[in-house]
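About this split. The held-out portion is used to measure sequence recovery: a designer receives only the structure tokens and must propose an amino acid at every position. Recovery is the fraction of positions where the proposal matches the reference. Here is one held-out target exactly as it appears in the evaluation file.
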């Protein structure tokens, strides 16, 4: 095996914990053995190191037998089989996966793999309805379209040596840099980083009940947070180093003292205007309106345009209204000499304490900036995967979350 055996042990342990979790209400499904997990993970890992016609391999595999697919999936999770089957199972190895690269992506389809006649084989391909996008999705569904992602171990290749392990629409964890990282609740939730993000737009929420003061605030918060999640999603897809910093609108001018840039800019992409339009279009009786869909699609494109500015060497700074302050900026704040602690992480078995002295200029300059500009929140993406969030806490410490991507839900 190329991959460390302890990773397969950790994955199996986490899978059993997920199966036994009382609050997730899992069906009692067959669980792969340690040997089977070893084969699946090692084969996908090897495939991730290959290239097919010069491109990185992209493929998804779901571990389920033909019998279990019909027994557990059909009827409850799928209206019809919606699958293709091979007359003869195809050998399950890294070279075969590389040859099949790109035919399924884990979001709308996956290869079906299991033991066939005492060997590991690809016996079919299952297709399913992609999860709804939070921005730009069509808010309706047709008849006979209930085809849920199989409730079985699924592994997607997300980069060189990088694998995503999921179950249905739930994330189990990721394998990156030779380590298995468990899934945890979304960092952007109100009892974690979310409370700092909500403050930027004057949203009041009861942390205990997660209740907003009124429906309009709830819609406003949802619209804003969906945009934040989409920016993080773009950074995650690109797998490159980048820094995006959000500064409070009211201290935009003050923040300019903390960076240098050769790219002086004015103007607006009118994201705040689109947010307000979506809030006005969100009453329940207008959920299927074409204006809402059109506005949402436009918002998606504008956010991607903003994220494109983060490709420049240096930091991208935007306000809480998504107005661009600067890009390609060199952060110049004085070195922070206070404490740097891991922020609260719910439903997580450990805290990932980081030594920022080993993380380099991008992370440390972000720490210095948020310490100098109170209320600012930095998202720092690393080319090796994690997207870390950094801000200043209520008790004047700098706090961080080790990864904004890993969440309980895909």
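Reference sequence for scoring:
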């Amino acid at each position: 095996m190329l991959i460390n055996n302890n990773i397969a042990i950790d994955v199996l342990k986490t899978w059993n914990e997920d199966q036994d979790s009382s609050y997730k209400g899992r069906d009692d499904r067959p669980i792969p053995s340690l040997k089977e997990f070893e084969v699946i993970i090692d084969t996908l890992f090897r495939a991730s190191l290959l290239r097919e016609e010069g491109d990185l391999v992209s493929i998804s595999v779901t571990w389920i037998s033909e019998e279990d697919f019909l027994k557990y999936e059909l009827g409850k999770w799928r209206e019809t089989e919606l699958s293709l089957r091979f007359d003869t199972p195809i050998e399950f190895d890294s070279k075969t996966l590389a040859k099949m690269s790109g035919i399924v992506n884990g979001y709308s389809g996956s290869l079906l793999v299991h033991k066939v006649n005492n060997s590991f084989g690809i016996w079919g391909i299952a297709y399913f309805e992609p999860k709804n996008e939070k921005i730009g999705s069509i808010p309706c569904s047709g008849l006979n379209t209930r085809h849920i992602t199989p409730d079985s171990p699924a592994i997607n290749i997300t980069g060189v040596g990088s694998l995503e392990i999921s179950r249905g629409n739930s994330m189990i964890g990721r394998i990156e840099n030779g380590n298995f990282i468990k899934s945890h609740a979304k960092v952007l939730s109100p009892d974690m980083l979310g409370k700092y993000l909500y403050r930027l737009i004057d949203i009041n929420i009861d942390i205990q009940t997660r209740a907003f003061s009124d429906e309009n605030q709830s819609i406003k918060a949802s619209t804003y947070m969906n945009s934040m999640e989409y920016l993080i999603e773009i950074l995650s897809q690109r797998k490159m180093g980048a820094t995006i910093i959000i500064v409070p609108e009211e201290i935009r001018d003050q923040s300019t003292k903390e960076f240098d840039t050769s790219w002086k800019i004015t103007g607006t992409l009118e994201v705040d205007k689109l947010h307000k339009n979506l809030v006005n279009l969100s009453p329940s009786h207008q959920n299927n309106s074409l204006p809402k869909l059109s506005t949402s699609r436009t918002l998606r494109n504008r956010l991607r345009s903003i994220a494109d500015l983060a490709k420049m060497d240096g930091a991208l700074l935007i306000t809480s209204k998504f107005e661009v302050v600067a890009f390609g900026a060199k952060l110049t704040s004085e070195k922070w000499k206070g404490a740097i602690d891991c922020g609260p992480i719910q439903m997580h078995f450990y805290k990932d304490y980081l030594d920022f002295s080993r993380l380099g200029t991008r992370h440390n300059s972000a720490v210095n900036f948020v310490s100098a500009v109170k209320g600012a929140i930095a998202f720092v993406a690393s080319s090796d995967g994690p997207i870390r969030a950094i801000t200043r806490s209520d008790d004047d410490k700098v706090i961080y979350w080790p990864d904004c991507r890993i969440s309980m839900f895909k």
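Annotator remark: The first strand starts at residue 51 and ends at 52.
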